């Protein structure tokens, strides 16, 4: 078995089916200990750290997390845009990361398509819709003759809810929802097996989002597609996903089936994401207690964390002590309540209010509204260096760091200028005396 598997991994073509897991599910895509780094040396940014998860054929696997957590970076690595610093990505058991044969690269491009977040930026404004949808057909010669190409394109444009007469138009003539339909048609006409959907509805109106999601669901049912759905809106993800992976600062912290994750959010970061989902009732939303994730609660100095299964196909990232707590919570089989509603009639404790204010203040003090670092602070500090130094101390005390930096630069330059003038003056006096 191991020799046969090694042979598949080194193959230059894709097999018909991928390997099976212990439950008999076909693994279509697998990420194993993936690291993605941008830059080199001390300025290098480790965008993704030790990411591992499998995507099974025919399912919708959603990757969720806040902005900047590394979701899109993972998606772009799957389509071979972002190179890996470590680890590997396999598709149907064949390694597709790193340097691969050209024939395999073309197969991967054809089998894995991407629907981008911004439907306006992802379409060529100089090309007609007909050419945009046909470009993949041209590149891979996926049509017998011109009549066959036209038939495929017209069929696809109708399947996404547009009309054949739209093929002669340009992207700027369409609305955002229509442009996203064109992007979906461009991907689906290639007849892929895996589609990486990078927040495909975040740039659309709420009324259009359901239409696009229903369209994607229809294609999945009809063509047996598999989706890697990248999103930050958990209220949407819950109802379209088979399984969900939660990513925080480039690290996968929890993976479970959709209902399992919402009923048992074990990792504190998952807890905070679910608690941030808006409640339609304004009274309940007003009295909701928002849970804020604090990474300092973890002590990984000695007991190193691991990504392990706690049962029920539920994987969580934590050290031995945390995993024991997570497993005990899951074994109790009592759903976790991530959202707490405060009693509106209950008096607010002064201690709670005092704790809440510094948090809001800290958020504001990161970049206060008037902390602009204006050039006038430099000019005034240059003319009046002593006043500039005093202003620098005052600004620094009130956390206006940009203004303090501007005053410091102006005051230092002014003092140097005065020192040079004084030195020249003393030198002239010395020359006159001699």
Provide the descriptors you would attach to this structure in a database record.
four-stranded antiparallel sheet; Rossmann fold; 14 strands; 2 domains; 434 residues; disordered N terminus; 16 helices; alpha/beta; eight-stranded mixed sheet
How would you sum up this structure, described in words?
It is a single chain. With 434 residues, this protein is of the alpha/beta class. The protein folds into two domains: 262 residues, 3-Layer(aba) Sandwich (Rossmann fold); 59 residues. The strands form three sheets. The chain has an eight-stranded mixed β-sheet, sandwiched between helices. Strands 2-1-4-5 form a four-stranded antiparallel β-sheet, with helices on one face. Strands 11-14 form a two-stranded antiparallel sheet. β1 and β2 form a beta hairpin. α14 crosses α15. The chain is globular and about 100 Å long.
Instruction: Spell out the helices and strands N to C.
Output: HEEEHEEHEHHHEHEHEEHHHEEEHEHHHH
Report the portion of residues in β strands. 15-25%
Domain tally: 2
Mean pLDDT: 87
Structural class determined from secondary elements: alpha/beta
Q: Can you tell me the CATH architecture of the largest domain?
A: 3-Layer(aba) Sandwich
| CATH topology value of the largest domain | Rossmann fold
Q: Whole-number radius of gyration?
A: 29 Å
Q: Tell me the overall shape.
A: globular
Range of helix content:
40-55%
Write out the CATH superfamily name of the largest domain.
Answer: P-loop containing nucleotide triphosphate hydrolases
Low-confidence stretches: 1-8, 350-366
Largest sheet: 8 strands, mixed
């Amino acid at each position: 078995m191991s020799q046969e598997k090694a042979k598949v991994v080194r193959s230059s073509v894709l097999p018909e089916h991928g390997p099976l897991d212990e439950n008999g599910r076909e693994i279509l895509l697998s990420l194993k200990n993936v690291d993605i780094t941008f830059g080199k040396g001390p300025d290098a940014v480790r965008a993704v750290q030790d990411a591992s998860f499998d995507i099974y054929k025919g399912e919708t696997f959603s990757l969720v997390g806040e902005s900047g957590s590394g979701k899109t970076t993972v998606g772009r690595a799957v389509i071979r845009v972002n190179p890996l610093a470590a680890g590997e990505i396999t598709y149907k058991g064949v390694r597709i990361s790193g340097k691969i044969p050209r024939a395999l690269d073309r197969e991967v491009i054809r089998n894995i398509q991407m629907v981008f977040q911004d439907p306006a930026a992802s379409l060529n404004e100089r090309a007609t819709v007909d050419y945009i949808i046909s470009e993949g057909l041209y590149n891979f010669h996926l049509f017998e003759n011109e009549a066959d190409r036209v038939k495929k394109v017209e069929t696809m444009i109708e399947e996404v809810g547009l009309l054949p007469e739209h093929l002669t138009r340009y992207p700027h003539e369409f609305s955002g929802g229509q442009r996203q339909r064109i992007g979906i048609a461009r991907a689906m006409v290639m007849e892929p097996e895996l589609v990486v959907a990078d927040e495909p509805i975040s740039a659309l109106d709420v009324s259009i989002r359901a239409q696009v999601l229903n369209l994607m669901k229809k294609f999945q049912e009809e063509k047996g597609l598999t989706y890697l759905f990248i999103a930050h809106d958990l209220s949407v993800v819950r109802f379209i996903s088979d399984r969900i992976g939660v990513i925080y600062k480039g690290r996968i912290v929890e993976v479970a089936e959709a209902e399992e994750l919402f009923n048992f959010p074990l990792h504190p970061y998952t807890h905070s994401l679910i608690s941030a989902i808006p409640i339609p009732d304004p009274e309940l939303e007003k009295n909701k207690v928002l849970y804020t994730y604090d990474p300092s609660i973890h002590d990984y100095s000695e007991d190193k964390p691991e990504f392990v299964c706690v049962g029920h196909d539920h994987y969580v990232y934590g050290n031995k002590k945390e995993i024991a707590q997570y497993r005990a919570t899951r074994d109790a089989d009592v759903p976790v309540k991530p959202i707490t509603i405060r009693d509106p009639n209950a008096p607010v404790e002064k201690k709670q209010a005092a704790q809440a204010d510094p948090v809001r203040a800290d958020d504001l003090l990161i970049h206060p509204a008037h902390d602009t670092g204006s050039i006038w602070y430099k000019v005034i500090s240059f003319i009046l260096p002593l006043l500039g130094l005093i202003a620098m101390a005052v600004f620094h005390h009130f956390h206006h760091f940009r203004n303090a930096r501007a005053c410091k630069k102006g005051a230092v330059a002014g003092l140097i200028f005065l020192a040079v003038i004084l030195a020249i003056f003393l030198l002239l006096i010395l020359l006159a005396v001699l």
